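Purpose: get a first structural picture of the assembly so the mutagenesis plan has something to point at.
Setup: two entries, given in the order below. No constraints added.
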Amino acid sequence: EPEVTQTPSHQVTQMGQEVILRCVPISNHLYFYWYRQILGQKVEFLVSFYNNEISEKSEIFDDQFSVERPDGSNFTLKIRSTKLEDSAMYFCASRLSRRGEQYFGPGTRLTVT
Amino acid sequence: GQNIDQPTEMTATEGAIVQINCTYQTSGFNGLFWYQQHAGEAPTFLSYNVLDGLEEKGRFSSFLSRSKGYSYLLLKELQMKDSASYLCAVSGVMYSGGGADGLTFGKGTHLIIQP
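Result (structure tokens, whole complex):
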């Protein structure tokens, strides 16, 4: 069964450093998403991406965040200058059409020290 | 603001039935989703309602009333492996950009199954 994959599974970085989280969505899916979940809190929407551009973003997705689909398979989230409060699990998701279920990847646990 | 409310924790017995309620007040709506999340893992899709009524899928059923801003997830024949958090999520909230397809989640209901 096709699945969303994410690398790395765990990333430790120092405050102020740049990190890139990588995702490979399900191959025929067209809509891509990033969410985050701070430990013990709810899942929060960050950004959606369609047709090589951002279609929607939340207040959390400020100028330190960017997304890119550099080739036909990868979808990346970059955090330019990490802060302690960026420590969270970051989930990538994809879906075939604009409605219906989103399939989540296993997540990248980001720890900022 | 967006409000999606569900009970924090519920306890049920193996083999029994449990109903997890979710109420929502959001700026937009085009569907309600239920996801299961085991600790430290990703959410996995359970059900999707866009119209009023009941959707049944094996041991899981989900109900939606759009006029009441209300949904529930019904789990039958509970098994120990059903111990997890159950997340209610709404699609259609308007964020910046207008795509309205990101999911807005509630805090989740932690379901404990006892033998």
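Chain B is about 0% helix and 55% strand.
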